[in-house]
Automatic annotation (TrEMBL):
Transmembrane segments: none annotated. InterPro entries: ASHA1/2-like_C, START-like_dom_sf. It comes from Arthrobacter stackebrandtii. This is Uncharacterized protein YndB with AHSA1/START domain. The lineage of its organism: Bacteria, Bacillati, Actinomycetota, Actinomycetes, Micrococcales. Belongs to the AHA1 family.
């Protein structure tokens, strides 16, 4: 498993998950800039993702859904706020309904990605900042931490190809 740490901070309203990979920074960046590679790891193995739109630049949006084992679809959206390849990425993250419209009552979270050269290995940290304690608790109860760790655990296989 590539995940090296998972740190929750209720005070800062953050969840930070770090993974290390035996690949160059530029190669790790490719799993973000190429939606076909992103689909191979975003979401737990039993909930693979499909990106319907992917406009990877500041101000651009991505729309996706994850398909569960029983065919259930969970939809989401991203709004990219910063794309500074190959080391930094930031986006707003939220849920969508079956029609792809934003579910405002679920709020949104800020997701920041940092990719750092570690001298032969690359560390990638995904830090999610929640709007409030209630949102953070709800997301953790829905299995966000475990799901992100399972998702990031699939990246080694993609980088090996």
């Amino acid at each position: 498993m590539t995940v090296t740490s998972s740190i929750k901070s209720p005070e800062a309203l953050t969840l930070a998950i770090t993974a290390e990979f035996p690949a160059a920074v530029e190669r790790v960046w490719q799993i973000w800039e190429d939606p076909r590679q992103l689909e191979r790891w975003w979401g737990p193995p039993t909930w693979p993702a499909t990106f319907e739109t992917y406009d990877f630049h500041p101000g651009g949006q991505a729309d996706y859904y994850m398909t569960g084992p029983d065919g259930t679809k969970a939809r989401g959206w991203w709004q990219f706020t910063s794309v500074d390849g190959p080391t930094r990425l930031a986006l707003n993250d939220g849920f969508a309904d079956d029609d792809g419209k934003r579910v405002e009552e679920m709020g949104q979270a800020l997701m920041e990605v940092s990719i750092v050269d570690g001298g032969g290995r690359t560390a990638m940290t995904i830090t999610t900042t929640f709007e409030n304690t209630e949102q953070m608790q709800k997301m953790l109860e829905m299995g966000m931490e475990e799901g992100m760790k399972e998702a990031m655990g699939q990246i080694d296989g993609i980088l090996a190809k």
